[in-house]
Design goal:
The protein is of the alpha+beta class and about 300 residues long. The chain has a single domain, classed as DD-peptidase/beta-lactamase superfamily (Beta-lactamase, 3-Layer(aba) Sandwich). Helix content is about 45%, strand content about 10%. The chain is built from 13 helices and ten strands. The strands form three sheets. A five-stranded antiparallel beta sheet has the order 2-1-10-9-8. β1 and β2 form a beta hairpin. α2 packs across α6. The longest helix has 14 residues. The radius of gyration is 18 Å and the shape is globular. It starts with a helix and ends in a 5-residue tail after the last helix. The protein binds glutamine. The site of glutamine has 11 residues, from loops.
Length: about 300
């Protein structure tokens, strides 16, 4: 496993310098772009790392996965009345479909969908912004995980589009709580800082039929785990989901902080981090590293 990681790292490292860090969130614009790390957590709980795998970074939309899993733990099938399971084929923060489709977001991994899920968690937890943080602490076995307040505040200050999305859903009666309160929790979760090693461990239950080695507990049923992976495979990479499936062939989730988690079901979870993004908003080196991974292991879910 270690030599697999070393090979991928060597192969992709020369690309460092390609892409651009996200600058629509001002606090993220100053992140050093020349960082690159990978971690794998296998289904026995062993972790392998290379490069900047222990550097904490802003997980951004990767939090949407943990947000969803937490809600799935507390709401039954009824969750799917408020959010769909179809790919959107549009940018993550697009509003156009939402108007046509009566305020029901296409899936939980676009912003609209994650905001509905955050609204559900807001109704369920006494300290909703801490619920996801405590959940990822438990899943990754790292009690030090916290949000970067500067990033969370910066996102709140530039909240117009996410606020518009949430208010549109409220107009369609698909949003229970105060929009600003839910936005605070949502941005806090996006601003959580985790390393590749934390995220590989934290997502390992998705490669292991819902069982987390770290907490030694069943997080989701095997069926729910397959459902989350199916959604990740079709919608986890926004409007690059199709070519990611074509090229890489694994369920994965990216964030504008430059992280991507991906699962090789039955074997291991992997997290790649490199902050410079391609034109679709996914980590340029991250996509290249995962392409190299499936080339080396000669395996995809398809
Ligand atoms: N916090 C970001 C937003 O809401 C998350 C987007 C992302 O990582 N794609 O715009």
């Amino acid at each position: 496993m270690q030599s697999l990681l070393d090979n991928i790292y060597q192969e992709v490292f020369p690309m460092l310098g390609q892409g651009k860090v996200a600058d629509y969130i001002p606090a993220l614009a100053c992140v050093e772009p020349r960082q690159f790390g990978i971690a794998i957590c296998d289904n026995e709980g062993n972790v392998f790392t290379v490069g900047d795998a222990d550097v904490p970074f802003s997980i951004q939309s990767i939090s949407k996965v943990f947000n969803l899993v937490l809600a799935m733990n507390h709401y039954g099938e009824g969750l799917w009345d408020r959010v769909g399971c179809e790919p959107s084929g549009l940018p993550f923060n697009s509003l156009v479909q939402l108007e046509y489709e009566n305020g029901i977001p296409r899936n939980p991994f676009i912003n609209a969908g994650a905001l509905v899920i955050s609204d559900m968690n807001q109704s369920r937890f006494a300290s909703p912004h801490l619920a996801v943080r405590d959940f990822v602490r438990r899943l990754s076995g790292n009690p030090e995980i916290n949000a970067d307040r500067i990033v969370a505040d910066s996102e709140f200050e530039h909240r117009a589009r996410n606020a518009a999305t949430a208010y549109l859903m409220k107009a369609f009666n698909n949003f229970e709580n105060e929009v600003e309160d839910v936005l605070h929790s949502y941005f806090y979760n996006c601003a959580l800082e985790m390393s590749c090693a934390d995220l590989a461990r934290g997502a390992s239950f998705l490669a292991n039929r819902g069982y987390s080695q770290c907490g030694e507990e069943q997080i989701l049923s095997p069926k729910q785990t397959s459902q989350v992976n199916a959604l990740l495979a079709t919608s986890g990479m926004y409007n690059e989901a199709g070519s990611f499936a074509f090229q890489v062939g694994l369920p994965g989730k990216s964030g504008v902080g430059g992280g991507i988690i991906a699962m090789v079901p039955g074997r291991f979870s992997i997290c790649v981090f490199s902050p410079a993004l391609n034109h679709m908003g996914n980590s340029a080196l991250g996509v290249a590293a995962l392409t190299s991974l499936t080339k080396h292991i000669k395996w995809s879910v398809y």
